[in-house]
Design a protein that fits this description.
The chain is of the alpha+beta class and 89 residues long. The chain contains 2 helices and 4 strands, in the order βαββαβ.
Length: 89
């Protein structure tokens, strides 16, 4: 059993949403056994930017569901999508 790297694209509620604050909150709300591995801010359109994070989660039943739920409950998060799953390099 090993870790799985989940790349998650997080869309903010507006162009004024502080993505750095969302990133800090993610670290606080991640369930036990999950950790933030990396992040980047990606331009989307018309000044809107998305936060892409890589979260390491244990290779357990349920996968990323608890991580997705925790992030979705953060103020300022409009939506999220797991865009890639794989083994960390």
């Amino acid at each position: 059993m090993g870790d799985v790297a989940a790349t998650i694209k997080i869309m903010p509620e507006s162009v004024d949403t502080d993505l750095d604050a969302i990133k800090e909150k993610i670290v606080e709300v991640l369930p036990e056994g999950a950790e933030l591995y990396g992040s980047e801010i990606e331009p989307v359109a018309f000044g809107l930017k998305a936060l892409k994070v890589v979260i390491l989660v244990g290779d357990l039943e349920g996968g990323t569901e608890s991580v997705e739920e925790a992030i979705n409950n953060i103020d300022g998060v409009e939506s999220l999508q797991v865009v890639e799953l794989g083994r960390p390099v």
